UniProtKB/TrEMBL annotation:
Its main location: membrane. It is found in: Membrane. GO terms for cellular component: plasma membrane. Residues 192-203 have a biased composition (Low complexity). This is Transmembrane and immunoglobulin domain containing 3. It comes from the Eukaryota. Residues 180-209 are annotated as: Disordered. It comes from Peromyscus maniculatus bairdii. Residues 1-15 form the signal peptide. The chain crosses the membrane at residues 151-172. PANTHER family: POLYMERIC-IMMUNOGLOBULIN RECEPTOR (PTHR11860), TRANSMEMBRANE DOMAIN-CONTAINING PROTEIN TMIGD3 (PTHR11860:SF4). The lineage of its organism: Eukaryota, Metazoa, Chordata, Craniata, Vertebrata. One of its GO terms (molecular function) is transmembrane signaling receptor activity. Keywords: Membrane, Signal, Transmembrane, Transmembrane helix.
Amino acid sequence: MEIFILLSLALFSDAMVMDEKVKSGIELDTVSANCNYDAHYKDHTKYWCRGYFRNSCNIVALTPNSTNRVVLKDTGSQLIITVSCLVKEDTGWYWCGIQRDFARDDMDFTQLIVTDNGDGRATGFSPGPSGNRNLSCRTSKAIQKAEGSRMSILIICILITGLWIIFIVSHLSREMRSQRNRGVTGKSITRSSQPSQAPSVVSIPLATI
């Protein structure tokens, strides 16, 4: 009976419904999306993906996991997606989806528009002081930038060390070849400087007949 109900829901109902089709956000701020679904799917995996077409969107996060900026919360009847530290590049189309066993995944979409000024503020934002969020995002970006700089310096140091080792090995190899060549040349000269001993000729007087 339960399988029949699930099949009926898959064929004749929308299991996942987005709360709003357009959401606006401000850079460095936070935006939330609520996707309601039938309680029969509370144990199914839900996800948040990005892309204009549902069949080719790129999954950003899957329940129960989250990322540094995308947090997923599954209440059993609603999937809450929270995206923090917004940047303009986040502008685009997004889908919330639910994985189903007997039919293709049910999905619903929203369009996110990120602006760089206060005029873009609209529904869908999590409450809280923007100043604190902005400071947190800037601090996080500064830390990431510092870590990237340290990694670049480390890579440069490794490359320089590798080049120096190669130079030392090449120099030592040339020195060894040079010493071997000098040794061979010295032996040749020593051999050639020794006087050649010609066989002594003994003159034998001819007997007079």
